[in-house]
Amino acid sequence: MKVRLGGRGSQLSLAQLEIVRGALARRFEVEIVTFTTTGDRLSRVDGITTGKDLFTREVDQALRDRRIDLGVHSAKDLPSQLPEGLAIAAVPLREDPSDVVVSREGGRLLSLPAGSRIGTSSPRRRAQILSARPDLEVVPARGNVDTRIRRLHEGRWDAIVLARAGLARLGRLDDATEVLLPSQMLPAVGQGALAVVARKDDSLLSELIAAIDHPPSHREVLAERAVLGLLEAGCRAPIAGLARTDAGRMRLHVAVFSPDGSHTLYEEAEGVADRPEELGREVGKKLLARGAAELITAARVPEKS
After folding, report:
1. Which residues contact 152 (CB under 8 A, 6 or more apart)?
2. What is the pTM of this model?
3. Same structural domain for residues 170 and 25?
4. Are 284 and 231 in contact (CB under 8 A)?
5. 91 and 106 co-located in one domain
6. What is the pLDDT of residues 109-131, one digit of tens each?
7. pLDDT tens digits, residue range 175-194?
8. The total number of structural domains that make up the chain
9. pLDDT confidence bin for 204, thresholds 50/70/90
């Protein structure tokens, strides 16, 4: 059986496609099909409203049109609601979801001089950086990982913040000067995880690729995404979330931030690991009751640079 595996054509996406291809190749003949997405074409993303499905739209449409059989995405790039007829069929073993600092002088976030320029276009990272270090200047940093690291060393910024998983998959972990613990910077929903998306009506293929699924990672992603769905927030909203599973129990931590990091709503809850979406909705309801919708709406103001 031949499987057409679709994803973006970026260096990181190709590395992620190869991870999934390698897992599937034991049972299937695999063809990789790449796409240039809307997000790849845009030179800047102004706000979370325009951020919905920017890096997944073309791949998902090809999947719905049956031009590919499976789509591979970074779980953190998925919109809160997948297009009609699609579902996450598998989540392989999740990488470390932490963020990392890459700085020109080898400094750590808390030791950078006041006024240092920190590059990130993530509202979530921006808010948490400013909450910890309001004396730093946070400025947009776009482009793929290699481009951002090159521009960092050309002097555009003093440091940048990236996902550890991306550096690991590109073999560039040595570039990181600090790993930020979740207690220092709560990661994005789904960060570190890959989502293999299939058509709901392709039950045979979904059943076959279940062999590459890592159930604890899958349940964690479902719990985190359930919060996004309830809050009706996109992947660029200033929301952080991390679920962790241990001995059949799951604990979910979620935070919603004001754009400048001056206001944070934090909630956590614990439940049985096999009911992840219920746990996510529980946390989401608590956040809504405390005004999370207002913070998310405030963050929809276009970013300035």
Report:
1. 102, 103, 104, 119, 159, 160
2. 0.92
3. no
4. yes
5. no
6. 999 999 999 999 999 999 999 99
7. 999 999 999 999 999 999 99
8. 2
9. confident
* Distance separating alpha carbons of residues 165 and 19, to the nearest angstrom: 13
What CATH number is given to the structural domain containing 276? 3.40.190.10
Mark which of 180, 215, 249 sits at the end of a domain.
180
Contact 56, 196 (CB under 8 A): no
Record the tokens describing residue 117, joined without a space. 């320029």
Mark whether 253 and 203 lie in a shared domain.
yes
Going by C-alpha positions, the residue among 229, 235, 12 that lies closest to residue 124 is 235
Tokens of 26: 């034991």
Q: Is 209 helix (H, G, I), strand (E, B) or coil?
A: helix
Residue 57 lies in a domain: yes
Provide mean pLDDT across the span 145-166.
97
Residue 7, SS3 per DSSP? strand
Q: What is the DSSP string of 128-152?
A: HHHHH-TTSEEE---S-HHHHHHHH
Whether residue 136 is found in the same domain as residue 114 = yes
Query: Is residue 305 assigned to a domain?
Result: no
Beta carbons within 8 Å of 227's beta carbon, 6+ residues apart: 189, 239, 241, 252, 254, 280, 281, 283, 284, 287
User: How far apart are alpha carbons 238 and 241 in whole angstroms?
Assistant: 10
Task: Please identify every residue annotated as catalytic.
Answer: 77
Inform me whether the pLDDT recorded for 43 exceeds 60: no
SS3 87: strand
Q: Strand 70-74 relative to strand 194-199: parallel, antiparallel, unpaired? A: antiparallel
Read off the pLDDT of each residue in 224-232 and give the average, rounded to a whole number: 95
Q: Do residues 174 and 109 share a domain?
A: yes
Q: What angle do CA 70, 58, 296 make, to 5 degrees?
A: 105
Classified as helix, coil or strand, 67 is: coil
Is residue 284's pLDDT more than 80? Answer: yes
Q: Which domain holds residue 69?
A: 2-95+189-298
